[in-house]
Amino acid sequence: MTYQSKFQCDSVDDLFNAILQLQTLEECYSFFDDLATVPEIKSLAQRLQVAKMLLQNDTYTEISKTTGASTATISRVKNSLYYGSDGYKMILKRIE
Fold first, then answer.
1. Which of 13, 25, 29, 73 has its CA 20 to 30 A from that of 35?
2. What angle do CA 54, 57, 62 make, to 5 degrees?
3. How far apart are CA 78 and CA 55, in angstroms?
4. Which range (1-15, 21-35, 51-65) has the least confidence?
5. CA 70, CA 75: separation in Å to the nearest integer?
6. Cα 28–chain centre separation
7. Residue 2's pLDDT band (cuts 50, 70, 90)
8. Is 18 in a helix, a strand, or coil?
9. Is residue 69 within 8 Å of 63, Cβ to Cβ?
10. Where are the alpha helices (DSSP H) in the chain?
């Protein structure tokens, strides 16, 4: 069965296929430096850190203090963790 996303389209497929071609951390830095702004990348990294901390049962206060994330961001990530597509859980398990 093929996963269907609410944002799936040819251009997003192209983006994700490009990301799948990256082979090193250096290549990731180079590609994302061209692709996105520093705040965009930091926001994505922050959300991943929030997900990791939520799965470790850290409190909103601890998460906000450590990551600088707002309670709204923490809540959105929590909703994705428990009602989303399990993407956070999948990738965090792989990078343990």
1. 73
2. 75
3. 9
4. 1-15
5. 9
6. 14
7. low
8. helix
9. yes
10. 10-20, 25-35, 38-55, 60-67, 71-83, 87-94
What single-letter amino acid sits at 2? T
**Residue 20 burial (C-beta neighbours within 10 Å; 0-12, 13-18, 19+):** exposed
Residue in the structure block whose two tokens are 């959105």: 76
Which two three-digit tokens encode residue 92? 């965090």
Tokens of 50: 């929030």
For the stretch 37-86, pLDDT in tens is 999 999 999 999 999 999 999 999 999 999 999 999 999 999 999 999 99
Picking from 78, 25, 26, the residue whose alpha carbon sits closest to that of residue 47 is 78
CB-based contacts of 68, cutoff 8 Å, min separation 6: 46
What length is written for the chain?
Answer: 96
Structure tokens at 64: 């906000």
State the Cα–Cα distance between residues 10 and 46, nearest whole angstrom: 27
